[in-house]
């Protein structure tokens, strides 16, 4: 059961039952959800019960106390004042998802959050999901085993769901869940290259690996070093999405460099200057919009001044997404409620406008 709180919950609570039904029935794609940021708290608590800190080379891993303190923070609701408050949540989560069995359990929990139909709901949260995750190598698994484990869960889960309606399957896929391999800005170039090689191989095996992402602390890493990596991914047939211009500290030069990688989609794209906006417009590059994430991370002050307003005016391709439902305590339905609710709780869009945005999300999928 997903816990919903904060601005998206308030927007959702302001809607009538028929408006909520309208959102729920809209076919839509969730294109920007991080696996380890989307695990239901109850699943992490379950994994914590059998957790014991691993020890390697005399070094003790994350202690039980640290894990419990991390879970306690997530249970109480996270306040993010600085970027470190957000990235500091992950060591405790990662400690709990560091074996193939645990990452498989966590993946099933995330898929249930997006596809399980609760009492009173007719439809799941989304029609189609692209779940992204950073392959980790641990004592018990390599990066390839990590990805194969996630893909084996997503493939069998996808097959257990009714197929996509023909009208939105676009003839090319009946798959309802795909996986994106994330490259973390804190990784070495060698590790990024390794992941892209694995991703291309898994894509070629038809396992539902659809693309690569650039994520992680936006203030880390050197964009000058990565162009060939994304070029290889593109030639290998993978879709490319990049977290870009996420904070004010990301320079216009860095943003232009990332755009030169020719991404298919952009995550956040909050602080694009005029030159960058022009390129994004010309290429019609879809922007993955994560409203709650931006509000809670304080990269947007309010909905009214949010950059979505600019792109809506241009009728630019957008996808409304959740980012990390665990710390942000949102859901895809609640993110759509932020579009639909009257101002100031939401953007006050009409049914037709909301429907068009949902269609855009489906059109922006990385298809096989
Ligand atoms: P994972 O890739 O499944 O391990 O999901 C968690 C990871 O996603 C985090 O460690 C971050 O690197 C990344 N992540 C989650 N949300 C954001 C975001 O808003 N910006 C950049 N990276 C993010
Ligand atoms: Zn993200």
TrEMBL record:
The keyword Hydrolase applies. The lineage of its organism: Eukaryota, Fungi, Dikarya, Basidiomycota, Agaricomycotina. It comes from Agaricus bisporus var. burnettii (strain JB137-S8 / ATCC MYA-4627 / FGSC 10392). Keywords: Hydrolase, Metal-binding, Nucleotide metabolism, Zinc. InterPro entries: A_deaminase_dom, Ado/ade_deaminase, Metal_Hydrolase. Residues 27-368 form the Adenosine deaminase domain. GO terms for biological process: adenosine catabolic process; inosine biosynthetic process; nucleotide metabolic process. Its cofactor is Zn(2+). This is Adenosine deaminase domain-containing protein. Belongs to the metallo-dependent hydrolases superfamily. Adenosine and AMP deaminases family. The keyword Metal-binding applies. GO terms for molecular function: adenosine deaminase activity; metal ion binding. PANTHER family: ADENOSINE DEAMINASE (PTHR11409), ADENOSINE DEAMINASE-LIKE PROTEIN (PTHR11409:SF42). It catalyses: N(6)-methyl-AMP + H2O + H(+) = IMP + methylamine. Gene3D superfamilies: Metal-dependent hydrolases.
């Amino acid at each position: 059961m997903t816990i919903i709180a904060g601005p998206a919950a308030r927007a959702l609570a302001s809607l009538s039952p028929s408006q909520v039904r309208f959102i729920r029935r809209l076919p839509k794609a969730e294109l920007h959800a991080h696996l380890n940021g989307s695990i239901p708290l109850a699943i992490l608590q379950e994994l914590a019960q059998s957790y014991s800190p691993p020890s390697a080379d005399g070094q003790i891993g994350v202690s039980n106390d640290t894990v419990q303190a991390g879970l306690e923070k997530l249970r109480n609701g996270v306040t993010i004042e600085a970027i470190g408050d957000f990235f500091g949540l992950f060591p405790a989560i990662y400690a709990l998802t560091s074996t193939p069995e645990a990452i498989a359990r966590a993946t099933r929990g995330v898929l249930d959050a997006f596809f399980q139909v609760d009492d009173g709901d007719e439809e799941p949260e989304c029609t189609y999901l692209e779940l992204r995750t950073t392959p980790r190598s641990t004592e018990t698994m390599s990066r390839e085993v990590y990805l194969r484990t996630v893909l084996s869960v997503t493939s069998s889960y996808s097959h257990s769901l009714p197929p996509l309606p023909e009208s939105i399957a676009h003839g090319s896929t009946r798959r309802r869940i795909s996986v994106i391999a994330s490259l973390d800005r804190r990784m070495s170039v060698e590790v990024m290259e390794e992941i892209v090689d694995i991703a291309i191989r898994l894509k070629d095996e038809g396992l539902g690996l659809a693309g690569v992402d650039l994520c992680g602390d936006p203030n880390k890493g050197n964009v000058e070093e990565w162009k060939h990596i994304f070029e290889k991914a593109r030639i290998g047939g993978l879709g490319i999405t990049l977290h870009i211009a996420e904070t004010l500290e990301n320079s216009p030069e860095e943003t232009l460099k990332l755009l030169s990688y020719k991404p298919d989609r952009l995550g956040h794209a909050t602080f694009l200057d005029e030159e960058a906006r022009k390129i994004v417009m010309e290429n019609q590059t879809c922007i993955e919009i994560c409203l709650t994430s931006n509000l809670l991370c304080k990269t947007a002050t309010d909905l009214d001044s949010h950059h979505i307003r600019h792109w809506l005016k241009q009728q630019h391709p957008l996808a409304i997404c959740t980012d990390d439902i665990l710390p942000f305590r949102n859901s895809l339905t609640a993110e759509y409620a932020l579009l639909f609710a009257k101002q100031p709780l939401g953007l006050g869009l009409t049914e037709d406008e909301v429907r068009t945005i949902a269609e855009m999300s489906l059109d922006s999928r990385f298809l096989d």
